[in-house]
Amino acid sequence: MSAPRPLLRFEHGWAHDAGVWAPLRAALADWPQQAADAGYFGPAVEPPPDGAPVVAIGHSLGFLKILQSPAPGCIAYIAINGFARFAGGADYPPGVAPRLLERMLARLELDPAAVVDDFRRRAGSAPHPGTPRPEPLRHDLRRLREADERQTLAASRLPLLALAGTADPIVAPALTRAQFGACAGLRWRDGGGHLLPTSDPDWCAGRIRAFLAGLPA
């Protein structure tokens, strides 16, 4: 009797919701799946573990969150437009300038919808039809400013696939290379932006299927 297929568990990024995964999930519909939702526009959703082995798939901030709190039974990681550290510093020049995140935090207190819509526009998304919930957005914007899981990533022995776009306006190629440059599983989408799960779902699905096929039985 063959072993059951692992569960694909999806974690979205900042200013988005679980719907960002819809095209990619459809392209991988023959695999068992579940998706978390951070609650930026409605109730948060944290699907409970079901005992199956898990392949954790994170988009953007979602990958950082996976590194911070791995799902029980996690056997592999997939980062899409992802990172282990976002904010820059003297020891991390490729990162995003912290002052930009500070500015977003300050504006978030005054006009959450404007901050969210501006970020989504830069990322390549349309404005979200829902009403932003400031508290979870603030919490995870601070996470973007402060979190550094590069050591966690470096110490991990789990198989890793990293998908990135050469034209990503949020996670620049230099930032990607700083974290995944030595990774044999790094794959580039020429001309790809920050929303590969929605803009290039078939390309992503093809690389994911090849990666899954190579996992130990």
TrEMBL record:
<protein>
    <recommendedName>
        <fullName>Alpha/beta hydrolase</fullName>
    </recommendedName>
</protein>
<dbReference type="InterPro" id="IPR029058">
    <property type="entry name" value="AB_hydrolase_fold"/>
</dbReference>
